[in-house]
């Protein structure tokens, strides 16, 4: 299993506070069968430059890597959860935030009603930057979207939809995931883990729910 969304790097955002917590998160994920975790710390363009963010991320990763026992930990791939901002499609150096070894960038859309500008910005990001877009925890935004036309147009974009594994605990979130699956949308799972308490690694719960509800074939597709 690949955990496509985590905040496992220590001391870089609101995720893990320290190396010890990061190691416990990694061990928990490994015990659930996770082989690879994407480390996707938050990137806020208004707070930090791309290069400064990458320096901080490398420092956090190097600190953690020195303490890891690879046999007890998933592999880590570096990425970022890029918080949406106006004009993201035209931002210089934004492609540096793609997931390590890919041209895929994870974008967190705003927690509010989206408008045509949000839609255009995502389209422009793909067209002008020549990157593929992964939309982070898409199921968390449904309740904000009263303009269903915009919601429908977002779902029709050629993007990958990342869903948090705890979607199965909420009826409205289950409804969103059901629609994605029924419409054969590109779907991947992430734990979005931040700690070992209230937001701990939980990828297996999402996989178990999908296996029970939609079958093992869907699990393998994801």
Provide a descriptive summary of the structure in words.
- It is a single chain.
- With 222 residues, the chain is an alpha/beta fold.
- Helices cover 36% and strands 16% of the residues.
- It has helices spanning 19-31, 50-65, 116-129, 148-155, 171-182, 203-214, 216-221; strands spanning 2-6, 36-39, 42-43, 75-78, 81-83, 104-108, 132-135, 160-164, 187-190.
- Helix 5 links the parallel strand 8 (160-164) and strand 9 (187-190).
Instruction: Provide the low-confidence segments as ranges.
Output: none
Helix content: 25-40%
- Bin the strand percentage: 15-25%
**What about the largest sheet?**
6 strands, parallel
Task: Give the CA-CA distance, first to last residue.
Answer: 9 Å
> Mean pLDDT, rounded to whole units?
96
* Tally of contiguous helical segments: 7
What is the string of helix and strand elements?
Answer: EHEEHEEEHEHEHEHH
Q: Can you tag this structure with a few keywords?
A:
16% strand; 222 residues; 6-stranded parallel β-sheet; alpha/beta; 9 strands; 3-stranded parallel β-sheet
């Amino acid at each position: 299993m690949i955990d496509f969304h985590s905040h496992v790097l220590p001391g870089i955002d609101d995720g893990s506070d320290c190396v010890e917590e990061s190691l416990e998160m990694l061990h928990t994920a490994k015990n659930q069968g996770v082989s690879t975790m994407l480390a996707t710390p938050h990137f806020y363009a208004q707070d930090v430059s791309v290069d400064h963010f990458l320096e901080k991320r490398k420092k956090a990763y190097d600190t953690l890597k020195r303490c890891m026992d690879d046999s007890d930990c998933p592999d880590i791939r570096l990425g970022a959860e890029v918080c949406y901002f106006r004009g993201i499609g035209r931002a210089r150096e934004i492609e540096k935030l793609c997931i390590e070894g890919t041209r895929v960038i994870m974008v967190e859309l705003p927690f509010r009603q989206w408008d045509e500008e949000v839609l255009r910005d995502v389209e422009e990001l793909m067209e002008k930057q020549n990157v593929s877009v992964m939309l982070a925890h898409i199921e968390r935004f449904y309740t904000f979207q009263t303009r269903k036309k915009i919601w429908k147009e977002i779902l029709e974009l050629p993007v990958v939809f990342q869903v948090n594994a705890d979607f199965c605990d909420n009826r409205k979130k289950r409804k969103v995931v059901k629609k994605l699956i029924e419409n054969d949308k590109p779907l991947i799972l992430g734990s979005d883990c931040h700690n070992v308490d209230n937001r701990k690694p939980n990828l297996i719960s999402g996989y178990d729910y999908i296996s029970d509800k939609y079958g093992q074939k869907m699990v393998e597709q994801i």
